[in-house]
Amino acid sequence: MAIITGTTLADTIRPGTTSSGVAGGIPGSGNDQINGFGGNDLLDGGGGANSINGGDGNDTIFASGAGETLDGGTGINTVSG
């Protein structure tokens, strides 16, 4: 389980890549906690039961695994999966 924390900018956090300044590594096989904070983020925890919080901004969140907990936060958010 990784705790991955974005910045106040528009971050990309997904398996295989994260934006500069993101702390905590990259999402793995599941059970990760991902916090986008500010900015218009693109968030994808990969497989498994992840907890994803977009924070402020207009975020795009991909629900890739079963049993995920998603919170877009404030803004106009898009959730798919």
Question: What does this entry look like structurally?
Answer:
The protein is an all-beta fold and 81 residues long. The chain has one domain (1-81). It contains no helices and 9 strands. It has strands at residues 3-5, 12-14, 17-18, 33-35, 42-44, 51-53, 60-62, 69-71, 78-80. The strands form 2 sheets. Strands 3-2-5-7-9 form a 5-stranded mixed sheet, with no helix packed on it. The protein has a 4-stranded parallel sheet with strand order 1-4-6-8, with no helix packed on it.
Any chance you could write out the topology, listing elements then pairs?
Blueprint: E1 3-5, E2 12-14, E3 17-18, E4 33-35, E5 42-44, E6 51-53, E7 60-62, E8 69-71, E9 78-80
Parallel strand pairs: 1-4, 2-5, 4-6, 5-7, 6-8, 7-9
Antiparallel strand pairs: 2-3
Mean pLDDT: 93
Order of helices and strands: EEEEEEEEE
* Relative helix content: under 10%
Query: In which order are the strands of the major sheet placed?
Result: 3-2-5-7-9
Share of residues in strands:
25-35%
Total number of domains: 1
Q: What would you call the shape?
A: globular
Number of strands: 9
Q: Termini distance?
A: 21 Å
What does the largest sheet look like? 5 strands, mixed
List the total number of helices: 0
Work out the radius of gyration. Answer: 11 Å
Give me the secondary-structure category: mainly beta
Low-confidence stretches: none
GO molecular function: calcium ion binding
Protein name: Calcium-binding protein
InterPro entries: Hemolysn_Ca-bd, Serralysin-like_metalloprot_C
